[in-house]
Structures are given as C-alpha cells and as structure tokens.
Design a protein that fits this description.
alpha+beta, two-stranded antiparallel sheet, two-stranded antiparallel ribbon, 6 strands, globular
Amino acid sequence: MLYDEDSEAVRLVGFRSDALIDAAIRFVADHHDRPFFPFLSLLEPHHQNATDDCPAPEGYRERYEGRWMPADLAALNGSAPQGGAHRHIGGYLGQIKRVDEGVGRLRDTLHSLGLTDSTVLAWTADHGSHFRNRNDEYKRSTHDASVRVPLALTGPGFTGGGLVRHPVSTVDLMPTLVEAAGLPVPDGVQGRSFLPLVGGGEDPGRPAEVFVQISESHVSHS
C-alpha cells in the first residue's frame, strides 16, 4: 500500500511496476507545462522475502527459464542453497522485461508531449544480486554482481551513446543532474558530477579507486 502527501492510502492495481509507472505517466501528463522532477522507485526486479521467489507477470517467467544465465552465476550455482540462480533467474529476468516495457511507455509519453529533447531520464539501481551464490544473502557482498549496477542517462547532454569508463557511483547522480540542468552544485554535496566524463571527456580530480562497504561487515577495495 502507498500513501499520498496527506497520509491517505492510495490503491494501485495491477502488477506493481506497471501501477507505479502508470502513476508517473499521469504525473508527467499533469505537469508537462512546467519544470518537474519525478522520482520513481520500483521494487522490481527483486527477490520477495515472504515467498522466497521472484514473481513476474503471467507468462514472463516462462520466457526466460532455462534460456540464459551469466557465466559467473552458472559456474557457482552448484554451491548455492535452494536452487540459487537457476531457481530464480526466470522470474527475475521476467520482472526486468516488464519494467523495461514500462520505461518504454514512459519514454513514449515524453516523446508524445514533445519533452524528449528537454528532459533527462536517469535509470539506475541500488544493488545487484548474486542469488546466494557468494554467501547466504542475495545482495550483501562486495562482489561485482552485488555492487556494479546499471546507470544510464538519456536526454540533453547525454545523446549519441557512449560509455563512461571511470569509476562513478550513484552518489554522483545528484550533482550530475543538477549540473545537467544548468544549476550550480551546492557546496558540501556528496559525490561529484560525472558530466565532464560524458563523450570521452576527462575529470583529473576524480578518484580512480573505490572502497565498498556493505552491511557494516563486508568491505572491498578496487
């Protein structure tokens, strides 16, 4: 259940990511004539603790079961309890497919309202999953499968494709978006805009190494 600014319950029907993206589309449609900054937080793709499953919409799990798995997960899966990645990968990828379709609908909305060339769309995640192949957790480790996440941006300043090869973090996203909007980044903000790196640029003061800490007890340096 979600709640509005008046703490009133808001019932969203349908698959959870669809319902939230539908709400975002309505927000954009209602506010497209002035600057807006919607933040959309989706739970999918994610393992559900209560059911120990990755529930996808009907027919979506079946599309991906037994078809493909990242090499590191396939190699380690024999040591994972309760089936590990082989048990969950179909639902997990099915969830991702449905979310991708929803993001496509949101992008179509921006296009239909003539906002594509004036709106930055940032897409990222807070963690990955190793499906209990590294320890007894799904995400709490400092391995790449947990800490390396997608971070993609489209819109003004981020056109033409490209790949930033320097280490960046989600903590850098806020100053990057502020700078992309043509605003000064406030003093004391954590993170560092990676806008100078877009298009193959350089940022001489950016750290070249990363220290990772997860759940107070797992640390890594790379």
